[in-house]
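Hi U.,

Before I forget, here's the chain from the pilot set. I'm dumping it here mostly so it's searchable later in email.
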Amino acid sequence: MTLKTLILHPQSPEETAQYATSLATRLDGGDVILLVGDVGAGKTHFARALIQSMMNPPEDVPSPTFTLVQTYHTARGDVWHADLYRLTSTHEIEELGLTDAFQADICLVEWPDRLGTLAPTDALTLSFAPAETDEARQIVASWKDPRWAEKLKVWQQ
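Structure:
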């Protein structure tokens, strides 16, 4: 499988949220999104918008920095939002049940470098970076699994 990429240039937090909301409509159980970027790059904002768009009614989606994982029940299935920044060992990831969730649920993982060899090879990686203005971002989507090409068509319309 070859690596595919798509680059997005949202100019505001609202536009970043629109990308998240549109992707949410295409997600299914077993879809894992790895969110990469420095503190303040937009990872949690993207995850929050995606999760809230899947809930009826929307509820507060706090950053899981201190809880490590938050789980939300939606019409499309359970959504796991993990922030692995504070973890130091892959054993901690297994204790959280995250590897099992990768198989059945929709998972959004911030700081996925902490996964090491537990990172799913079929995941979508979204790399966030600041762009030309304070509110603008560059988001680089990369994937190997062909199912993501179909799901990401929603961003190419």
